[in-house]
Amino acid sequence: MHLSNICSFLSAFINCFFLKVFCLESEFSLKGDYLLGGLFTLHEVQHATPLSTPEAIECFRYTFSKSGYQMLQVMRFAVEEINNSTTLLPNVSLGYEIFDHCSDTKHFPSIFDFISKNGSIKPKEKLNNYQPKVIALTGPYGSTRTITIAPLITMDLIPLVSYGASSYTLSNKLQYPSFVRTIPSNKNLIEMIIHIIRWFGWNWVAFLGSQDDYSEDGLRIFHKYISNTGICLAYQEALGQRANYSQTLKKIDMLNINVIVVFAVPTYARNIIKAAIANNIQGKVWIASETWAMNQQLPREPGIWKIGTVIGITERLLSLPGFDKFIYKDRRTMNAYCAESNIQSKNKTCNQVCDYCPLLTAEEIINENPSFSFTIYAAIYTIAHALHKVLQCDMNECHKNMTVKPYMLLEQMKKLDFPLNGHQVKYDDNGDPTVSFAVVLWNTETNPPRFDMVGTYDTYPEITFNINNSLLHWHNNGSVSYVFSDGFTRVPLGRNRKQKLGLSVLYWNPYSCSLCAESEWSDEGSTTCKIRTVVYLDFIEIHSIIVMFSATCLIILLIAIFCLFAYNFNTPVVKSAGGSMCFLMLTCLIMSTISVFFFFGKPTSVHCLLRNVVFAFFFTVFLSCMAVRSFQIVCIFKMAAKFPNMHSLWVKHNGQWLFVGFFSIIHLISCVLWMTVSTPKPSSDSLTFKDQIILSCEMGNTVTLSIIVFIGWFLGFLCLLFSYMGRDLPKNYNEAKSITFSLILYNVSWIVYFTAYLILKSKYIQLVNAMTQLSSIYGIIFSYFIPKSYVIIFQPQKNTAAYFQTSIQNYTQTISRT
């Protein structure tokens, strides 16, 4: 009798003990050579209670989530599959530690468990010495929860491979250096939503979200990306749990908005859809974000068909071969042990308890929302492939004697590029994956409801987007491309619907209009403002390239002439051209040519100063040199004999340099006045073309500009006058024809430019300005300097003192005869 009782007691004790260990470890824990962390939402906190003191949460006390439990099973399946593989991690086993993650802010004990080493945490430990409990982890579900815990994980470069956090903020590698995700970011999702809206030509939409990082991030990106698309965001609201959903939907219905984007987590999306059914909201198009696009309960709601057409965006539904078999096997094992004993341990670790988990059937798990199945599967395989690289595995074995640090896995993850179930897994510099979205249509007429794939969007190997319109069945058997009711007033030219902002609600009054901003334009009768195209003379335009190439060639030619004259400085040709003054003339022409480059590119204050002021000053100094050089030749041949005293004073006091210096100072003062009275600065012309803003430079104060132009033209006139007076001088000193030709070209060029400036209103007037400056310089160099350079190089016999003396004697004899 006693022996029988002892045997019964031992049997019950052993059965209870081993069942507890088995149930707990098979679901939440698994031993292995390398441990992975997992965070899944097995329970959902509907209404968080604010606390005055820190407190950890016990998730099992809240609402059970079948979807979260299915996600947990996908991780377990992936780990088992990898452990059974003979090629990925041969002779290495992966283990895991999984926690229920049901709150945004009360789960730090589980995070501390992951990053601890033998139960303690050393925040300032060097990376090479730091060995946390896990080498990497995946989860949690949701952007807000991920952003909350990410700093603790990423500060020690532990890879956080997320399957369900899409906030674009997490792409910032400065803030989240070890964050990697297998789900596309909100940026990609919003791009997809906008593709759908534009595909059907809708432009009057509402955007509903929840009060969390996920929705706030999505709305911010949506605002940014619709700015130049013609899409009008007619209403937006971030809804809380206790928000008045009925009132929100009635406002949308009153504004005749037929397209509603619901960018919210499942809890809020359910509230919105149920409120639409309850308030008899009919005939709308609902665009569902990936968080609830494949929700299994909502399509079964009574009256769901009345609300209209639901189009969802989800990750391309990729099957997981062997997953169903794994679940059936796991359920049989669970039913044979855990369910029969009705035992769950609540003593080992916080949030590793799930009373309802053993009660689920295999069919319930398999038929749950599969939206995140592949992203979880890919997250585990990402960690495994990175570990494969770190351990230098081959087909037979891995080097298990190596010490694996988390940051080593992170380094390898950045380089990964591997196929997985027909999908290529790779990451960009921000740790974001390639995009493979599916557009699904809710078919609520069948039982059970179906999710029919009607479109795709991929970014690898190239960007493609397509929707099969023939597969779409709209509500009321019609299209929803209309966006306004007949009672809405049309908006006059250049106006759009007026935006009125509330605290958390944005709505539009369809009966009032407002002017478009200066940077926008609108067609007659349009309800939207479009962004104007900003135009200016860009560097890469063919016209710009030609002009800049011409300027470059001119600078090279001027430098070559400068060097040629310097080498032949003591020859008669150089002295007759002006001697040392030639180098000042050539320098001024080089500086004038350089100013041409500032006509190209987006105008700035520096560009505006350098393009006109520099040319005006240096070209005027050049003209003063030309004028005094022409005068000096006439003075030598015609005035020296008649006015010997004046000639003597001119030579004694370097009259030519005084002349150049005087006009240079006068002109410099004029330029300073030009820059200070009204500085040339960038300007934008938004009046000439309704769809363009032309960026250019203001010319500055008209009076000071007129003084600048007058000085230049006065010196040009003096050049013409003196060259005409010396038209009968010896051939070697007679520059009348060349100077006259160059100055006529100079004056004609600027007359053409000022005429074009008054008539032509486009960015190309700046091109005309640049070409005018170049033609002025080209005319002078080819009529004055090139002939002299030709004599120096190809006719050296004419570049001798004897030849010049002969010319002077012939001229003297001619004069004496007359």
Q: What does this molecule look like?
A:
Mean pLDDT is 81; it is low at 1-22, 339-348 and 477-512. A hairpin with an 8-residue loop joins strand 21 and strand 22. The protein is α/β, with parallel strands linked by helices and 818 residues long. The longest helix is centred in the C-terminal third of the chain and has 35 residues, at 605-639. Helix 5 (186-199) crosses helix 6. The strands form six sheets. Strands 18-17-16-13-12-11-9-10-20-19 form a ten-stranded mixed beta sheet, with helices on both faces. A six-stranded mixed beta sheet has the order 1-5-2-6-7-8, with helices on both faces. It is elongated, with a radius of gyration of 41 Å. It starts with a helix and ends with a helix. It contains 22 helices and 25 strands.
